[in-house]
Amino acid sequence: MLITPAYAQAAAGGGAFGALSGFMPLVLIFGIMYFLLIRPQQKKAKEHKAMVEALRRGDQVLTQGGILGKVAKVNDDGVLEVEIADGVKVRVLRSSIAQVMSKTEPATAA
Q1: Residue 46: inside a domain, yes or no?
Q2: pTM, entire model
Q3: Tally of domains in the chain
Q4: Which of the residues 58, 65, 82, 98 has the least number of beta carbons within 10 Å of its own beta carbon?
Q5: Dist. CA 95–CA 37, nearest whole Å
Q6: pLDDT at site 21
Q7: Which residues is 102 bridged to in the sheet?
């Protein structure tokens, strides 16, 4: 007989464990990306939104364009009037405020 039986033809080991170990690096990479990139970015966006919503008249702000000024008027449509010099007011979007330099105290009810 010219053909000999092959004795070492066992199946590749661990069917379910092999599939799980194939996905484990992808899950690990996604977890690292979430904690290093996505989560801090969401936290920063949430803080910026809270800061912009808390703006009121008299706050000194810095725009993303680098203009320093004082909030003269807060409109409901997302636009602020910022006074950058005596009698010079510009209209800017709320979302373009990068930082609040100093906050004013809220007016007390008389």
Answers
A1: yes
A2: 0.67
A3: 1
A4: 65
A5: 22
A6: 80
A7: 60
- 20 pLDDT more than 60: yes
In this structure, the dihedral spanned by the alpha carbons of residues 64, 75, 104 and 44, taken in order and rounded to 10 degrees, is -40
Please say if the pLDDT value at position 79 is more than 80. yes
CB neighbour list of residue 83: distance below 8 Å, 6 or more residues apart: 69, 70, 71, 72, 89
Q: DSSP H helical segments within 13-100, as ranges? A: 15-33, 39-53
Return the closest-CA partner of residue 88 out of 67, 107, 65.
67
What's the domain range around 51?
22-102
Let me know if residue 39 belongs to a domain. yes
Residue 108 lies in a domain: no
Quote the pLDDT of residue 86: 94
* CATH number, position 96: 2.30.30.140
Q: List the one residue out of 53, 58, 45 whose CA is nearest residue 76.
A: 53
Distance in angstroms between the alpha carbons of the first and the last residue of the chain: 110
Overall average pLDDT of the 74-91 stretch: 93
Is residue 78 one of the residues assigned to a domain? yes
